């Protein structure tokens, strides 16, 4: 378990996939910006069983209640993260803290040069969570995601190890 002030991250075990299944099959949970692909619990369990360089985590309140999902996947020397929160838990800083926790964990425990994430160009909340953790907007990737009947753009963000180290030094010098 990785702990923060408001939330903790706990690796999802196979027997917890049913919670994730309910969220991913609910268009309110995935929100207006993310793909909505119906999937059976068995299909999700097969996907879970075939994970190799990817980890799925629950974002939970410190009382243990899961309120979201974050994943990290190793890809060619860097990590890719994705995250979602339950609709009623958005706007409370939970995603921002979860991103900080996972980024710290990844840089402290893996020999990687960057962590990156993609988001919908209009998903300003997602962008704020990334930017407040030191991520830089790098590019708009045109029509790279088919979602809800249309090809959609995404925005690529990243934080490099040296940016992360600089952020950590600034936090130590100027605590929040």
On the 0 to 100 scale, the average pLDDT is 88
Strand content: 35-45%
Query: Which geometry do the CA atoms define?
Result: globular
The number of domains: 1
Secondary-structure element order, as H and E? EEHHHEEEHEHEEH
Q: Total number of helical segments? A: 6
CATH architecture: 3-Layer(aba) Sandwich
| Cα-based radius of gyration, to the nearest Å | 16 Å
- In the sheet with the most strands, the strands line up as 1-2-3-4-5-6-8-7
CATH class: Alpha Beta
CATH homology superfamily: Gcn5-related N-acetyltransferase (GNAT)
CATH topological fold name: Aminopeptidase
Number of strands: 8
Uncertain stretches: none
Which sheet architecture does the biggest sheet show? 8 strands, mixed
Distance between the termini: 24 Å
Summarize the amount of helix as a percent range: 25-40%
What structural class results from the helix and strand content?
alpha+beta
Task: Give your account of this protein's structure.
The protein is of the alpha+beta class and 176 residues long. The protein has a single domain, classed as Aminopeptidase (3-Layer(aba) Sandwich). The chain contains six helices and eight strands; from the N terminus they run ββαααβββαβαββα. The protein has helices at residues 17-24, 27-30, 41-49, 94-109, 124-131, 161-173; strands at residues 2-3, 7-11, 54-61, 66-75, 78-85, 114-119, 136-147, 150-160. It has an eight-stranded mixed sheet with strand order 1-2-3-4-5-6-8-7. α4 (94-109) links the parallel β5 (78-85) and β6. The model has no long low-confidence stretch (mean pLDDT 88).
């Amino acid at each position: 378990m990785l702990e923060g002030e408001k939330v903790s991250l706990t690796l999802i075990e196979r027997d917890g996939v049913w919670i994730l299944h309910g969220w991913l099959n609910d268009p309110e949970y995935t929100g207006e910006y993310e793909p909505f692909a119906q999937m059976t619990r068995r299909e999700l369990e097969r996907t879970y069983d075939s994970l190799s360089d990817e980890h799925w985590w629950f974002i939970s309140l410190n009382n243990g209640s899961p309120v979201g999902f974050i994943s990290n996947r190793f890809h060619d020397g860097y990590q890719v993260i994705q995250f979602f929160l339950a609709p009623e838990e958005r706007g409370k800083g939970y995603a921002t803290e979860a991103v900080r926790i996972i980024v710290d964990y990844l840089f402290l425990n893996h020999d990687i040069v960057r962590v990156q994430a993609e988001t919908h160009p209009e998903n300003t909340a997602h962008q704020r969570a990334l930017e407040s953790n030191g991520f830089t907007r790098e590019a708009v990737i045109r029509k790279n995601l088919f979602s809800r009947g249309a090809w959609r753009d995404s925005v690529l963000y990243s934080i490099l190890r040296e940016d992360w180290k600089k952020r950590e030094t600034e936090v130590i010098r100027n605590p929040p």
